[in-house]
Amino acid sequence: MTVLRLLPLAAAALLAAVLASPAPAAAASSCAPLPLEVSLPSSDPTVLRDDPLAIVRAKRSARISDVRVRLVRGGRTYASGTLAGRLAAGRVALTLRLAGDRVIGAGRYRLVATGRRAGCRARTATARTWRMHRPSLPLRAAPISTLTSDNHGVLRLLLRTVDHQPVSDVRVTLLDRTGATVAQATAPGSFTGQRTLELPLAGTIAPGAYMLRVRGRASGATAVTTRPLAFAPGSSDAAPPPVTAPATGLIEQHATIDWSGGAWEGRDVAGFVAPGIGYGEIVCRPDAQWIRFYPDDLGREVSMMNWTYKDWSENREKAIREAVRIATSGRDFREGLNKFWPPEKHSTGQFDGIISDRGPFGSPAPTDLAAPTTLRLTWTWDFSRQGAESCHVEATFVTQSTASALTPLARSGSIAWRGSDAAAGHDATAFAVPGLGTVSLTCQAAPNGVRALTIDTAQGATVILREASTDSARSQEIGPVSADLPNNGMLAVAFPGGPTMLVSSRWKVNDPDPTQNSCFVAAQAIVP
Fold first, then answer.
1. I need a surface site. Which of 105, 182, 427, 490 has the fewest CB within 10 A?
2. 215: nearest Cα among 187, 196, 177
3. Nearest one of 46, 280, 274, 252 to 160, comparing CA atoms
4. CB atoms within 10 A of CB 184
5. Is the model's pTM score more than 0.85?
6. In the 3-class helix/strand/coil scheme, how is 397-411 assigned residue by residue?
7. Residue 490 CB: number of other CB atoms within 10 A?
8. Residues in the chain, pLDDT under 50
9. What's the distance, CA 378 to chain centroid?
10. Which residues are CB-contacts of 102 (< 8 A; sequence separation ≥ 6)?
11. Are 292 and 301 in contact (CB under 8 A)?
């Protein structure tokens, strides 16, 4: 105070203003660097290529929005991704898009994240060095089941190449805890996509932890990849992907995930095949819960439409969900079992769905469509206590086999056209179902045209319409059974005595540009 009295009035006012206002440098330091942790799930370039994700987390509960992440080296961007809106609490996964013309190899990279912090005018950044190791073999292996009795005399694996990279001279070895070889098999020649491999076992595999070692060649060099496996006592009657036509009229597969006590490692993945369309994996662990599908032919459109039911204790939801691989999307697609991220502490649920082939991209009226595969998947998990988590998933996949008319059997049909002019002659199909009748599907292009399902049978049925987040049932006492096709939804039909039918339907006929109209219908009937 004494100092202020001795200063001229103007100088005293200036000093008071400086003392009362925060310095620009101090204000800027609260905004930069961005209080955000950013990392990759692995230092293996193959892992990043297979599942391009970055993990971000706000520090000190900072409110951050519109996060952008880039992986850079030498001034070039190798991967980038954006997360719109405000960042949720906890660790959040952000999907990255890889630069198609740049291969991520071993070496040092910069992982750069930018975003907006609440209270700060400009975007700020944070960065860290990330060292990539030598890429592992671009091949992944998933068991059909990790329950011991499902692997009697043989361990059945689905092999898939990462990003459809070709591999050759593959040898798969199963090692026990001591590093001793339990089983071994080779996949001769070169392949890309998916292949089934059986490792011979002397009896039933014993419960416990194992290591799967896969050695092969890719891009002219020998490489190795490993993954843990763990087998628990039990059986789910898991069936192998068939390599020959079965004795009955359908191909049925079962996939199972089962673990508890937080011991998910090596037991969190189960594989399956949709014959003629592709192959997939079911994943359930504390940081990932989904069904992921890899089309065999990257030049074709593939859909997975599911009627989903989810219950997470605090609430529940049912809804139509469709995951589609189109020409501009990635090489695979997935549908999450979780409702939120981080995932719910408790969850149970069910998917009833159809995986269907829609033909080559842009094809007006494809005629070489593969038979659809239906799925029923149920799950329950408890992630409420770290170190004591558990998850159980069971799934059944059914595809028709016309090699036999013996029951149980499945029969199916599909419609696919793009552009109203292509619909004529391709807007209807029919197929016979032994013991049930003839199923007819119609999807005309005219706005007032017929788009319907008809089953020429004397018996009645209950037809359930599933659209958006509602389902409604309608009983028909006698046949024929008929129903309009929803423009984005499913029909589930149940007949007396056990036969069922599932139909997925998506159509548009009112676009001002007729070339943008389309119709895609896939149906499968099952007679037990």
1. 105
2. 187
3. 280
4. 13
5. no
6. EEEECCCCCCCCEEE
7. 25
8. 1-27, 241-245
9. 15
10. 76, 78
11. no
